[in-house]
Amino acid sequence: MNPFEILAVDSKSRARRGRLLTSHGPVETPVFMPVGTQATIKALSPDEVHALGARIILGNTYHLSLRPGAQRIARLGGLHAFMAWPGAILTDSGGFQVFSLATIRTIDEDGVTFQSHIDGSRHRITPESCIEIQELLGSDIAMCFDECTPYPVTRDYAKASMERTVRWARRCRNAHTREDQLLFAIVQGGVFPDLRRACVEALTAMDFPGYAVGSLAVGEPKEVMLDVLETVVPDLPHDKPRYLMGVGMPEDLVEGVWRGIDMFDCVVPTRNARNGMVFTSRGALQIKHSRYADDPEPIEAACTCYTCRTFSRAYLRHLFMAKELLVYRLLSLHNLHYFLTLMESIRDAVMRGSFEEFRRQFYARRCVEEPIAD
């Protein structure tokens, strides 16, 4: 049975409203997945994240395999029990670390050798061990091992990397045994349309339950990212979920959905919160700025999150300037509420057939109001 059901399709774009069935409940799409790299959404408890409306979060194979170790997590009941998360979990394969830890790893046909960023010890991840780790973790969705290519990159390198990613995907498919875990493949090929199409053709022939678009938001201009989506998405199976990895800002979510993406993840809501940036319907603001020192208003008057119902900008600025730990929780609560509410509004708009109007109003609010970002 196909675990993905399409409930509505927008008539003026590629946006869809869907439902993905997982072993830990249904996930309504389009969806934003908060990132819990090391089995925690930073500064927040699982209850808080679930209460905000999140039904799926992301963990990371590379980081969890190093600390505390997949075998230990398995002995303690699997990742869901270990971190007390009641919803679904998607685990990234570690392919992004092939990109981000480029100075301490080597790639060959069989896999990748890492030098641990924690203690310098050497570790090896192959497609087979990547799947073994994710099966031990017990995530609902596992990702095939791939190489996230940098930007810019030569066509020759992108081609060799893409072809290796396809070979690794086949090995991941052969190694995967858990029937309660969906396995998604990752489309690579850099910014080269023919390479992306060739990768899609090869991966869809293997008939994975879902497909991700990788190696975007790695430094390329925004218009390049959108051009790649215009190339890739139409060739992906209509009846399978489409996941844009590591993206992104609010406008990226809107534009991704417009082009047919169903799933997103990014550290932006919580990482930016820890740096004092909070998101509103008019744009982003930096809470540390002196203009908010005497501001009695909440971050956003219409927001219903705990932070906005309870605290002023002045108080939040005071906490941030004093480096009080509470501020990281409060700003993270607000930002995740904003992102998850944005996705709920997108789902409603697609279901009503009014996503084009939603998209227009989304940008109009940013253009008409006085900018508050600095």
UniProtKB/TrEMBL annotation:
Q: Which GO terms describe its molecular function?
A: metal ion binding; tRNA-guanosine(34) queuine transglycosylase activity
**GO cellular component assignments:** cytosol
| NCBIfam families, per database record | Q_tRNA_tgt, tgt_general
Question: Does this entry carry the keyword Transferase?
Answer: yes
Q: Reaction catalysed?
A: 7-aminomethyl-7-carbaguanine + guanosine(34) in tRNA = 7-aminomethyl-7-carbaguanosine(34) in tRNA + guanine
This chain's function reads: Catalyzes the base-exchange of a guanine (G) residue with the queuine precursor 7-aminomethyl-7-deazaguanine (PreQ1) at position 34 (anticodon wobble position) in tRNAs with GU(N) anticodons (tRNA-Asp, -Asn, -His and -Tyr). Catalysis occurs through a double-displacement mechanism. The nucleophile active site attacks the C1' of nucleotide 34 to detach the guanine base from the RNA, forming a covalent enzyme-RNA intermediate. The proton acceptor active site deprotonates the incoming PreQ1, allowing a nucleophilic attack on the C1' of the ribose to form the product.
Subunit (UniProt): Homodimer. Within each dimer, one monomer is responsible for RNA recognition and catalysis, while the other monomer binds to the replacement base PreQ1.
**Entry cofactor note text?**
Binds 1 zinc ion per subunit.
**Gene from which this protein is expressed:** tgt
Family as reported in the entry's similarity comment: Belongs to the queuine tRNA-ribosyltransferase family.
Which GO BP terms, alphabetically?
Answer: tRNA queuosine(34) biosynthetic process
Does the record carry Flavoprotein as a key word?
no
- Catalytic residue list: D92 (proton acceptor), D265 (nucleophile)
Residues recorded as binding Zn(2+), renumbered to this chain, are C303, C305, C308, H334
* Keywords of this entry: Glycosyltransferase, Metal-binding, Queuosine biosynthesis, Transferase, tRNA processing, Zinc
The tRNA-guanine(15) transglycosylase-like domain, residue ranges: 13-365
> Which lineage is the organism of this entry classified under, starting from the top rank?
Bacteria, Pseudomonadati, Thermodesulfobacteriota, Syntrophobacteria, Syntrophobacterales
Origin: domain of life: Bacteria
Return the EC number: 2.4.2.29
Quote the pathway field.
tRNA modification; tRNA-queuosine biosynthesis
Q: Where is this region: RNA binding?
A: 246-252, 270-274
Question: Mind telling me what this protein is named?
Answer: Queuine tRNA-ribosyltransferase
List ligand-binding residues for substrate: D92, S93, G94, G95, F96, D146, Q188
Task: Tell me which cofactor or cofactors this protein depends on.
Answer: Zn(2+)
